[in-house]
Amino acid sequence: MAGNYTLTIVKPDAFGAGKAGKIIAHLEGQGFKVLAARVLHMSQAEAGEFYAVHKERPFYGSLVSFMTSGPCMPMVLEKADAVAALRAAIGATDPAEAADGTVRKLFAESKERNAIHASDSDENAQREATFFFATTEILRAR
Ligand code: CMP
Questions:
Q1: Is residue 41 annotated as part of the catalytic site, yes or no?
Q2: Model confidence at 142: pLDDT above 90
């Protein structure tokens, strides 16, 4: 499956606003297949660990507060060259800079409350997928 899957999260802003279904439909329309999905409300410790790479950034505390402000929806998505394909589909971090037709342009509020997360490498896709899902929970292509 390496190279063909990535991890996304419909973040608390979008999930709380009832946009998860539209975001999933948008991504399915672009050929992404959902291999695993769940709804959960992350603890401070979980969000802090997930975003540990940003620990020294000035926005880290605010990011952890935001990501624990309500339920979110992590999913493992499959598509050829999934990491690059999903990053192109979601657009720039700041929705004001995101291209037309991208998830963040369509559904995000701000640079922090930006609707969706996507892994930035195959290595992180694996780390992030196993952060949220047991291997047995990830549908295998048949
Ligand atoms: P994500 O792709 O999940 O990766 C890290 C997150 O930190 C990012 O989306 C935004 O939600 C947030 N983020 C990144 N840069 C900034 C910033 N300059 N100010 C506030 N939040 C940010």
A1: no
A2: no
- The number of domains in the chain is 1
Q: Which domain holds residue 29?
A: 5-140
- Residues 14-73 have pLDDT tens digits of 999 999 999 999 999 999 999 999 999 999 999 999 999 999 999 999 999 999 999 999
| Sheet strands side by side (includes 33-37) | 33-37, 73-78, 5-10, 116-118
Q: What is the CATH classification number for the domain harbouring 81?
A: 3.30.70.141
Whole-model pTM?
Answer: 0.96
Query: 93 C-alpha vs ligand 1 centroid, how far in Å?
Result: 7
Of the listed 26, 41, 54, 117, which one is catalytic? Answer: 117
